[in-house]
Known about the structure:
InterPro entries: Znf_RING, Znf_RING/FYVE/PHD, Znf_RING_CS. The strands form two sheets. Strands 3-5-6-7-9 form a five-stranded mixed β-barrel. Strands 1-2 form a two-stranded antiparallel ribbon. By secondary structure, the protein is α+β, with helices and mostly antiparallel strands. The protein has helices spanning 2-5, 37-44, 65-74, 76-106, 140-148, 237-252, 257-267, 272-275, 283-296, 301-309, 313-327, 348-366, 369-379, and strands at 26-28, 34-36, 115-122, 131-135, 152-157, 162-172, 182-193, 198-199, 205-212. Strand 8 (198-199) and strand 9 (205-212) form a beta hairpin. Helices cover 42% and strands 15% of the residues.
Amino acid sequence: MAEAAHIEEVPPHLECAICWKLLLEPVSVPCGHTFCQGCLAQALGYRNVCSVCRAPVPPGQAVNVLIRSMIAEQYPRALAHRRQEQQEELREADDNAAAQRREEVRNDGPSDEALILPILRSVKFALPHSRVEHDTSGQDELVQFALQGGRRVCSLPSNEDLGVCMIIEDFRPATERQHSSFVRLVSKFRVRLIEPPQLHEDGFEIGRFEAMFDTPLPLNDLVVESISGESTEEETASAIGYQCIELLDRQRGMLGPGALYAFAEQCGEIPAAFRRRPGTLTSADLEQLSFWLLGAIVMDEPGRKRLLHSTDTRDRLAACQRKMQAAGPRCVLNLPGADSWMHPGQSSWTSIVLLLVVFGLLVAKACGLFDQAFGRQRSLPLRFG
Ligand SMILES: [Zn+2]
Ligand SMILES: [Zn+2]
């Protein structure tokens, strides 16, 4: 309490009307009200109106440097106290997100123990937080084993010890009509083999894994503006993340409706935490964004592999940012058929032409061209013997 006595008394007009604390990175909106940048971002995530008077607030409001420097000059100790408070809030949010992830790894199993997962061999690396379909013909025992347990498998490329833990969302066994069986999987987190896999009596491999996450980011990296308050030379990981989203939107702007749809089908939407600008992000949010970007951008195989093995979220985000910046007006999005890392030489134009051909076929089908040609065959009754 002795220290608290030294903190200056802050007049109410310098308090944020959302958190009722000293304004931190103050932003003045057109109606004249002023809020902390983080508080405003969070409030605007719900509705684009001022929290006090409900007047509309356009996005992209800058910090009011006049108010900020006035607070820094007149209330230095209150400001330092406020910044420390913010650091603690950030740390708490980040710790909570990390605990949630550990809970996900545990999946009702005992904690601090290796994960035992059946191994689904794959040709290429699956990205964490993505959805894939996998042909599991001849591997029904493996799928059944997973379904009886926690529905989890490890997708692991040959000669690799780094895979991804996946959850089976749907299983379609082979039928008389459909000779292959398929699983739809949602990938969760990376896992590393800790000893050579064993052969299960039902003929599939099973391995002991440990979960692998990126190193948690320093707190300063979790806010868009550097916490120190001064404009630093280095951007925060959050700022790089948002720049990547802007660059990606510019890339998407180059696509027509058909290619846009195909891109969304292939890569899914931007992770939920980034669809609207939240007040604070966690290391887990930024890691998820970095993997989503890695899947959304065409990248050469060695570079991609390095980033998959890396535990540095910031480095992964910066690599995606560089790739899109270097592309300029060229499209580097991972569209169906681009199959980026397997055929690095193939341009995205090839996939656009392919898309046009598919679209043309669809139009032909809609016009009934195929029905005319095959209509008679189809109407023949199928009777044998
Ligand atoms: Zn506030
Ligand atoms: Zn207002």
